[in-house]
Write a structure and sequence with these properties.
Blueprint: H1 3-11, E1 16-22, E2 28-34, E3 37-38, E4 44-49, H2 53-60, E5 63-69, E6 73-84, H3 87-93, E7 111-125, H4 128-143, E8 155-159
Antiparallel strand pairs: 1-2, 1-5, 3-4, 4-7, 5-6, 6-7, 7-8
Length: 160
């Protein structure tokens, strides 16, 4: 499996992510976000509040990072955020669970879609057989006082 496809497959394993933006004062801000959709080309969609701090951050600097983590899988993307009022896309993505944040439903004026266009990504996948192989390598390296070799199947940097 090529690294680009592997990265996109890993993205689809996550339902939440941390969206990292640069604040008005230059600070770095990270916020948990529900992943609305992962497209086949790796673009991510989120739904947010139009008047939120993250949207204010994006007005000054649209470059973002998105990170995802489980106990054995890790993904990091960097790219550009694009706010969108695409009603057809919102209709496609809408989840009744979002009524917690948008009680008026998908017709709420406060809903804004965020499309993240990734420029590069990295992953570390130590799940399944790959994880077992890594644990064996790490154990051997530990006993020998060395660092374990990285495995291109488990770790890669990908240009999108």
């Amino acid at each position: 499996m090529n690294t680009h496809k592997k990265l996109i497959d890993l993205l689809k394993d996550f339902d939440t992510a941390m969206l990292v933006t640069r604040g008005v004062d230059g600070s770095i801000n990270a916020r948990p976000m529900a992943v609305a959709q992962v497209e086949e080309d790796g673009q991510l969609w989120f739904v947010t509040e139009r008047n939120s701090g993250k949207v204010s951050d994006l007005m000054l600097d649209s470059e973002v990072a998105v990170t995802m983590q489980s106990s054995s899988k890790f993904v990091s993307l960097s790219g550009t955020a694009h706010p969108s009022d695409d009603q057809a896309k919102l209709d496609e993505l809408w989840s009744e669970g979002w009524k917690v944040w948008f009680p008026e439903g998908k017709s709420s004026d406060t809903i804004l879609l965020l499309r993240i266009e990734p420029s590069q990504g990295e992953y570390w996948d130590h799940s399944g057989l790959t994880g077992v192989k890594y644990l064996l390598k790490a154990g051997k390296a530990y006993l020998q006082g060395e660092r374990p070799a990285t495995d291109a199947e488990a770790n890669a940097s990908v240009s999108m």
